[in-house]
Amino acid sequence: MKDFISWVYLLLLELLVASNSALFRYYQDLPPVAKAYGVLCLMTSGAYELGLYNHQTIALFYGPVIKRFQVWRLVTNFFFLGPFSFTFAFRLLLIARHGVQLERGPFDKRTADYLWMYIFGAFSLLAMALIPFLSVPFMGASLVFMIVYVWGREFPNERMNIHGLFQLKGFYLPWYMLGIDLILGNPLKPDLLGMAAGHLYYFLTVLYPLSGGRFSLKTPHWVHKLVAYWGVGFQQNAPVTRNTAADVAFQGRSRRLGGTRTSASTQAQPSSSEQEQQNAAAQPNQANDGVAFRGRSYRLDGRR
């Protein structure tokens, strides 16, 4: 254990010395949600390897949650991907690759929507764990598998080179990973639960609305407020204003295609005399400030 602690200490020193390296710049450029989840998973497993806690204290057991009010178990179990091993490193790489690609691709400028995907997946997995034969103590692997499943649906035709042996379409990646866990002897229940949660999210947000369904799973208002409060990421058409105290690029108000804001109450309305002066000064066949219609219309020849 002392040798391991010394190795971790030297590794941290090397990271501090190499703060200007490409690895540090890569970390800085990562999108906020995938980066935060990956770092929390790494810190949780690292603290377990250092013997700072017993992993059973963060496992998902509904008995202590109900009887002893240990509500932290409902959250902490999603951040434990297992002890340091090949499986742990593989799952962390899945977050760094497919989770980041999702956040930069289909969820680009939709930080709140991407965060809601994680939260919805966690709620779905917690609901499944209420069934005794579906319960697992740690659902971090299931959440990672959900990310991979949604990635496979968003990038179904992307070609992936598997170890230089063959190519695989993105749609079949979750099933390939399921086979890898079967070969390695890992339990398949967390993978199947993650696929179920991912399919439920994709069905409610994409498939069902496209088929003409009236219901669509939308990001709750409080998730937008949470993203705006922390001042991370970027969200188009957000219903809340951004946190001005944070130095971020989060945009609070949405805009119409014509350039007008969706909330007219936030702008001062001009008086009637000022409106008449603006209309009188307007030229025919010309839009004012990007707005195609300004009160009164004009004929093609310029006469009223």
Counted beta strands:
2
* Strand arrangement, major sheet: 1-2
- Determine the structural class based on helices, strands and strand pairing: mainly alpha
Strand content: under 5%
Rg, Å, rounded: 25 Å
- Summed over residues and divided by their number, the pLDDT gives a mean of 78
Q: What is the rounded distance between the termini?
A: 87 Å
Q: Which H/E pattern describes the elements?
A: HHHHHHHHEEHHHH
Please, how many helices? 12
Largest sheet: 2 strands, antiparallel
Low-confidence runs of at least 5 consecutive residues = 246-270, 280-304
Tertiary shape? globular
Helix content estimate: 40-55%
GO biological process, one term: response to stress
Biased composition (Low complexity): 259-287
Subcellular location: Endoplasmic reticulum membrane
Function: May be involved in the degradation of misfolded endoplasmic reticulum (ER) luminal proteins. May be involved in the degradation process of specific misfolded endoplasmic reticulum (ER) luminal proteins.
Characterise this structure:
By secondary structure, the chain is an all-alpha fold. 52% of the residues lie in helices and 3% in strands. It is built from twelve helices and two strands; from the N terminus they run H-H-H-H-H-H-H-H-E-E-H-H-H-H. It has helices at residues 2-17, 22-29, 32-49, 62-67, 73-76, 86-104, 111-129, 140-154, 173-184, 189-210, 221-230, 272-281; strands spanning 159-162, 166-169. The protein has a two-stranded antiparallel ribbon with strand order 1-2. A hairpin with a 3-residue loop joins strand 1 (159-162) and strand 2. The longest helix has 22 residues, at 189-210. The termini are far apart. Residues 246-270 and 280-304 have low confidence and may be disordered.
